Amino acid sequence: MNTKKLWMIALVMMIAAAPAFAGEATQMWRCELDDEADEEMVEAHSAKWLAAALKVDGGANIKGKVLFPVAVNATGEMDVMFVVTWPSFAEYGKFWDAYSGSDAADIEEDGNSLIVCPDSVLWESVTIK
Fold first, then answer.
1. Which residues, other chains included, contact 21 with Cβ-Cβ below 8 Å and sequence gap of 6+?
2. How far is it, in rounded angstroms, from Cα 78 to Cα 30?
């Protein structure tokens, strides 16, 4: 077999295998709460947002969590973290392309008097088995 064919086979195998080993897209927001907000209010608002986000193109398989600090030595200007995970970066991209003008975006805007999340970080998360 000549060298060109070997390289072509290797390239095809790498392209085919890449999605199987790609990690999840995990976005984490550092959020600040209104002084009147409590955990139940944050959970209820987050559940409402997630229900709407699941209907956005690319959002059908997302998972969400709110992280409340228990023992922390320095959180800075952060009261909670809001974490959303997509199974792939392709779904993440579809979601954010369709997000503007969605019910989820409206719910986010409505909740700005309760919770504001100005900073976020996008991570590739890989489940360790």
1. none
2. 6
Q: What is the pLDDT of residues 33-75, one digit of tens each?
A: 999 999 999 999 999 999 999 999 999 999 999 999 988 787 6
Q: Which domain holds residue 56?
A: 22-125
Question: According to the model, what pLDDT value does residue 1 have?
Answer: 53
Is 76 inside a domain boundary? yes
User: Amino acid identity, residue 87?
Assistant: P
Residue 29 lies in a domain: yes
Q: Is residue 30 part of a domain?
A: yes
Q: What is the pTM of this model?
A: 0.79
Pairing of strands 115-125, 63-67: unpaired
Which CATH number covers residue 43?
Answer: 3.30.70.100
Map residue 116 onto helix, strand or coil.
strand
120 located within any domain: yes
Start-to-end CA distance of the chain, whole Å, equals 37
Where b means 16+ CB within 10 Å and e means fewer, 53-88 reads beebebbeebeeebeeeeeeeeeeebbbbbbbbbee
Per the structure, the count of domains in the chain is 1
